[in-house]
Design a protein that fits this description.
273 residues, alpha+beta, Glutamine Phosphoribosylpyrophosphate, subunit 1, domain 1, seven-stranded antiparallel β-sheet, six-stranded antiparallel β-sheet, 7 helices, 13 strands, 23% helix, 27% strand, globular, Glutamine amidotransferase, EgtC-like, Gamma-glu_amide_hydrolase, Ntn_hydrolases_N, glutamine amidotransferase
């Protein structure tokens, strides 16, 4: 889940909605895993330019420290992620979101047969960035490939080039469908989202554009009544069903989410020439 808008307590976003992200860690409906208990992480922006990150290998529903800090953190931009490992170890350095400077990155999905592709992919990471890779996940590798290809200057082009590289390496190793992803990344001002898979069957991704409709979704959340019209949500699953409140990001698309605008564009891998 990603949130952008007026500062709000994290607990209002993580714990109060009926089908909150914490509830989804046990009862996900649309993803590949019903239970997502291999760790939890949040990233948020405060008084400094760079975001803070909290990560834990505890299941989200049983993380007392997360519950404790969520009642005290107020932020205008939050990334939150619950993890179901696709094969890499359950350890803090493998939990999302990942951070580099001002940037946060999180991902649902996988790079198929990552163990086979990993060496070729990490060798393509900029040598200056490589020492900053802390974990062993496909997600972090994809993040650092995007940084290598210019994420900080042009996120859509950088991600398109990173995905093209993964597909090229995958096909070279006989992997038919190397990429399956929904990605969210932010510099603390805007949020870019991507939904793409090599086989055209990608995990769900939704966004909201009208906070008034979100208020109808959650009359139990008094805090929403105080939020301004620029409030935006991005979620893997709707926090509660309400016709017209959530818009699905089409498969094979990228989107820009900002306080004063939202855009959706076609997404295609971009092979460098």
């Amino acid at each position: 889940m990603a949130y952008s808008g007026d500062p709000i307590l994290v607990e209002e976003l993580l714990y109060r909605p009926v089908h909150s992200l914490i509830d989804q860690s046990l009862h996900a409906k649309l993803g590949g895993f019903t239970t997502n208990g291999d760790g939890v992480g949040i990233g948020w922006y405060g008084d400094r330019a760079e975001p803070a990150v909290y990560k834990s290998t505890h299941p989200a529903w049983n993380d007392r420290d997360l519950r404790e800090i969520a009642s005290q953190i107020r932020t205008p931009l939050l990334f939150a992620h619950i993890r179901a490992s696709s094969g890499t170890p359950v350890q803090r350095s493998n939990c999302h979101p990942f951070r580099h400077g001002r940037w946060l990155w999180m991902h649902n999905g996988s790079l198929a047969e990552f163990g086979t592709l990993k060496r070729d992919l990490v060798m393509a990471v900029d040598p200056a960035l490589y020492p900053q890779i802390e974990g062993s996940t496909d997600t972090e590798t994809l993040f650092f490939l995007a940084l290598t290809f210019g994420l900080e200057d042009d996120p859509p082009t950088a991600v398109a080039r990173a995905v093209a590289l993964v597909e090229e390496v995958g096909h070279r190793h006989g992997v038919a469908y190397p990429v399956h992803m929904t990605v969210a990344t932010t510099d603390g001002e805007s949020i870019w989202v991507f939904r793409y898979s090599s086989e055209g069957e990608t995990s769900s991704l939704y966004y909201s554009t009208d906070v008034a409709q979100v208020r109808q979704l959650h009359p139990e959340l008094e805090a929403l009544q105080q939020l301004g019209p620029d409030t935006r949500f991005v979620v893997s699953e709707p926090l509660r069903e309400l016709p017209g409140a959530w818009h699905e990001v089409p498969d094979g698309s990228w989107g820009l989410v900002h306080r004063d605008k939202g855009e959706i564009h076609p997404f295609q891998p971009l092979v460098r020439v």
